Amino acid sequence: MHHLFDVFGIEIEYMIIQTETRAVAPLTDRIMTAQCGQPENECRLGPCEVSNELAAHVFEIKTPQPTADLDQLENDFRETVRLTNALLAEHGCRLLPGPMHPTMDPARESHTWPHGRREIYDRYNAIFDCRGHGWFNLQSCHINLPFADDREFALLHSAVVLVLPLLPALAAGSPFRDGKPTGLADTRLDTYQHNQARCPAITGAVIPEAVFSEEEYRQTILEPMYAEIRPLDPDGLLQEEWLNSRGAIARFDRGAIEIRLLDSQECPLADLALADFFIQTIRFLVEERGGLLRKLVQTSPLDGKARQLREVIRHGLSAPVLLPELREAFSLSSDPATAADFWQAIASGPVGKGLSPRRRETVNTLLRSGNLADRLLAFYQANEGQAAFAPMMDRLSDCLATNQLFTPSST
User: Mapping DSSP to helix (H, G, I), strand (E, B) and coil, where does residue 273 land?
Assistant: First the structure.
């Protein structure tokens, strides 16, 4: 059992593409077989664990155990990426980072993982028809934060819910779908929130309801979700905590809240810097504003937080800040006008000063240069539109291999 902020778990999803054509390649099972002798759903590759879920081209790298050493974790992710790319090179493939493949046609290119847990994927497909972008073209970075009991859960969940609508502003990296700009900074999240519309209780408003105990969580969130899907899942195959698709979900089976709203970035440097920045933001709320959190969350309507998230999905760092409670929560001198203003204020205050120099500089670079969506759009516009996608994907894969930030310029 771990207490608040003792350790963290990080999971980052990538996709396998053909090096020459940049098309997705359903080869995850071959990498698993090369490493484990058979196509396991999970196995160890270097210092990290790797796994697969629904899509046969998606390759997830994650911490084998929760850790407090994010510096070492960044090195571990780099090494597992290196080892994976070496195995993929034998098949003319490599890893592509980022939240969405810009030109993938999921109806034509999708392949479902054909091995263990197949019955779960078949059930999802029967209910939701998993042939679209929402199932085969969404890669995210998940942050797992521990809690030990109801008191810690209430504090942690309240802090997460309070700041969750603004997290994607700095992490948004998906401005393209179907070979063209969508007009959104976070197309992945826009797709995600409509993914299971047949059973709306599964995703809810994406931002979780304000609840303060395991019992209340089960009554308010889990049981309505299970009841709604039961006619479509009569044997209860899907009626587990992981069915919940809100942007942050409680995993009472392992004593953690899993934050799922973050687009995967171009390299572990960016993913881990943002993860640490957001963890320290949530930690500040818990440790410095714990007595206020319940009141702040209870007086902040869920529809207001959902509206804030929609603005962030569309506008990213330029989104207007619609949550006046954030000024009190962080003792800001004035109401921030935009998400960029809010995150700049957080980065220049105690939260930012608590980061390591390297991660603080990375966060500041992203605030200056824009989130990944901003930088990808700049590259697209500078390289004659659709002709930019091939060199863009090459640049992204190179950024992952070298652990460097994506820059729109050619230098």
Answer: helix
